[in-house]
Amino acid sequence: MTFSIHGLAVARGIAIGRAVLVASTRLDVAHYFIEPSQVAAEVSRVREGRDAVVAEIHRLLASIAQMNPKDTPHELAALLDVHLMLLQDEELSNGVRHWIKDRLYNAEWALTTQLEVIARQFDDMEDEYLRERKADLEQITEKILRAMRGVSSPLMQPLGRHGRKLTQQDLLIDDTVDVPLILIAHDLSPSDMLQFKQSVFAGFVTDVGGKTSHTAIVARSLDIPAVVGARLASHLIRQDDWVVIDGDAGVVVVDPSPIILAEYGFKQRQGELQRGRLMRLLHTPSVTMDGQKIELLANIEMPEDAESALQAGAVGVGLFRSEFLFMGRHGKLPNEDEQFQAYKRAVEGMQGLPVTIRTVDVGADKPLDDTLRDDAHLNPALGLRAIRWSLADPAMFLTQLRAILRAAAFGQVNLLIPMLVHASEIRQTMALVDHARVQLDNRGVAYGPLKIGAMIEIPAAALTLKVFLKYFDFLSIGTNDLIQYTLAIDRADESVAHLYDPMHPAVLRLVAQTIEQAQAQNKPVSVCGEMAGDTTMTRLLLGLGLRSFSMHPAQILSVKQEVLRADTEKLTLWADELLQEDEPSKRITQKA
Ligand code: PEP
Ligand code: MG
């Protein structure tokens, strides 16, 4: 039966495929397709893993039998018996074999997929005792995965076969491996998302998350259709269901009828045609109708993203979110050389164009590591995040500063500092930059010149620009956080997402005055929050005087199309009027 689930539109486009439900705790398991010739080897990898766990349990049972009954809790042997029973369950082994043989999933993926299938059945059980056996099932899966780690696995292969275009007919009749897969999860961390850059998924849906949560931001950078904040999606959708993601409308259609499927297939093709048309603007200079040159820069997460930035015609990187180099490393931070190599790759990748590297911004919804997530802080967005984190650990910060300074010897590099608010933080930061230079001088290591800029993303910073303009060479407005902190709306919380309003007059006034004051002192100013890539905001930002936009590479050509149609003289008058409105969003659709 067809039904739809509504969430928040995050990354545009339509994806049609089969659901792959992944428990958030299982996202670290590799997901890749194997060759048909590898089926037998993968099946035996799981079998050997399972046999190793069975042998271990038998050993334990034997040692329990030899112990004094007083020394061993009697539940232990019973529990181990349950584990043995679950391990020998045919539904587990047959299911795993099915995912490997019929879908060509790698062994770990097949095992965790079948775990999800059986876990659902346990969830639906009336009997509490049986329901609780789900935890045992999870434990034995974990043990098998651990046992399998000792058995080598073939190299992860990015999916080649999805390159083939699927026809409508394929979608209706092809029930096997040549079908796009849609990841459905309760939650995904930004670092989980990053793994998907190389993955097999054609789209994804999560139960939680706001429109400018970092998970959503990474999804947008992957440029695959995505919906977040879809509440119960991971409960309502079953493994292998057909689903359609409408990333423009924020809707997920489950089990679509052939007519609905045909409709979305059509929409999907229209989207592809539109993208093709936009590509024609690639070499068109970004200039408004009245001759204003507009700088379109890229936001990147990894050095390798420089390639997509260039392909989209970016004239530089306006925001390299360096924290992604620090995430998912189980607490081990990258050393100076590792960071230097990464920054240098980004600089060289941009082939002489400027690269703005932002110092690490972890904390809030960007934990360093999922396993290290510290829930003790009730308001992590107001806690030790970004520059606060860096200043709390000067040795770590100096390491990053030295690495960035060294990369600046290979091209034009700007240094960007996130979340500053106090003059004292600015002074400490500047002192540490000087100190990093001295350290490199003492070591005789070469480094290059840097322009230093500040993110304006806390209202207090926007209201005290004088001190920022005194110290910094340029400003970059982080509208994602500026909105979050101005309106007191957690950007990652879908339950208040309807109140997260980029058009709130207070937000627009802070953005407008930041642009105006920076320009009055001839300091470059850009916007690097999601607002910059939102085509419904382009005319307004131009009207507010903005001439530099930084966004995901995939958004650059759509924004350029808006720029080419704009007349900034008219837009300035219109934006002035809009700023006086109580509810500017009501007038945004009216033409200037
Ligand atoms: C912002 O806050 O707008 C921004 C660009 O930084 P981030 O989204 O990484 O917090
Ligand atoms: Mg920010």
Tell me the distance between the termini.
Answer: 46 Å
Shape call: globular
Most strands sheet: 8 strands, mixed
What is the strand content?
A: 5-15%
Low-confidence stretches: 151-176
Continuous helix count:
22
Strand order of the largest sheet: 1-8-7-3-4-5-6-2
Structural class by sheet pairing and helices: alpha/beta
Average of the residue pLDDT scores: 88
Estimate the helix proportion, in percent: 40-55%
Please give a handful of descriptors for the protein shown.
alpha/beta; binds magnesium ion; 592 residues; eight-stranded mixed sheet; eight-stranded parallel sheet
Structural account:
The protein has 592 residues and is α/β, with parallel strands linked by helices. Helix content is 45%, strand content 13%. Strand 5 (201-206), helix 8 and strand 6 (226-228) form a beta-alpha-beta unit. Bound molecules: phosphoenolpyruvate (PEP) and magnesium ion (MG). Phosphoenolpyruvate binds at residues 217, 319, 321, 361, 457, 478-481, 528-529.
Write a concise synopsis of the structure shown.
By secondary structure, this protein is an alpha/beta fold.
Which SSEs are present, and which pair or pack?
Blueprint (H helix, E strand, L loop, with lengths): L2 E4 L1 E4 L2 E8 L17 H28 L7 H14 L2 H14 L3 H17 L4 H22 L18 H6 L7 E5 L4 H6 L5 E6 L7 H9 L3 E3 L4 H4 L5 E5 L4 E4 L3 H22 L15 E6 L5 H6 L5 E5 L14 H14 L5 E4 L28 H6 L1 H14 L5 E5 L5 H21 L6 E7 L2 H5 L1 H7 L2 E4 L1 H9 L17 H16 L4 E3 L10 H6 L4 E4 L4 H9 L3 H12 L13
Parallel strand pairs: 3-4, 4-5, 5-6, 9-10, 9-16, 10-11, 11-12, 12-13, 13-14, 14-15
Antiparallel strand pairs: 1-8, 2-6, 3-7, 7-8
Helix pairs in contact: 1-2, 1-3, 1-5, 2-5, 3-4, 4-5, 12-14, 14-15
This protein binds phosphoenolpyruvate (PEP) and magnesium ion.
Phosphoenolpyruvate binds next to strand 10 and helix 18.
